[in-house]
Amino acid sequence: MIHPDKIGMEAKKREDENYKFRSFLKGHADEEELDKQFLRLHKELFADYDCNKCRNCCKMYKGSIPEEDVEKDAEYLDITVEQFIDFFLEKEACGIGYHTKHMPCDFLQEDGNCKLGDCKPDSCKKYPYTDQPERLCSLLGMLDTVAICPVAFEIFERLKQEYGFRRR
Fold first, then answer.
1. 115 and 67: one domain?
2. pLDDT tens digit string along 22-79?
3. What InterPro entries does this protein map onto (predicted)?
4. Partner of 58 for a Cys bridge, out of 10, 105, 138, 146, CB 3.0 to 4.6 A?
5. Helices (H), 2-149
6. Which domain holds residue 131?
């Protein structure tokens, strides 16, 4: 597995190839079969991977906090809703939720754990979404993920092998 510190550079080297592979999948992959492949590789690779030793996702994205989670999260941190918003959050541009004020995410702790514990948002729990359905429809977004998450990067590389994809 690629080291988290090298993922950006390696993904950049493969950027053109990854866009071509995405186009290849769009034209050749069966959606149901691709979802099964993603899920199989996700389970296989995450079985032995410790995300706390990486956390590129937390370092390179702002955390997204849905409006309905604010009260629960504030209570978990034993602060008021007003303090929680004031200390950590700013309204998202579309106004339907919040994101953290800083990158890395304000809730990332030095040991790689999240200050929000089990209260962390679903978007964080599900990242990198490689076990979610409808991967064929989200391949463009997956290219961003491949540049951040070593497991997603490895999944993409293994899929290239499985499909016999070669640089063109």
1. yes
2. 999 999 999 999 999 999 999 999 999 999 999 999 999 998 999 999 999 999 999 9
3. Puta_zinc/iron-chelating_dom (IPR005358)
4. 105
5. 7-13, 15-28, 31-46, 56-60, 70-76, 81-88, 122-126, 139-146
6. 2-52+127-161
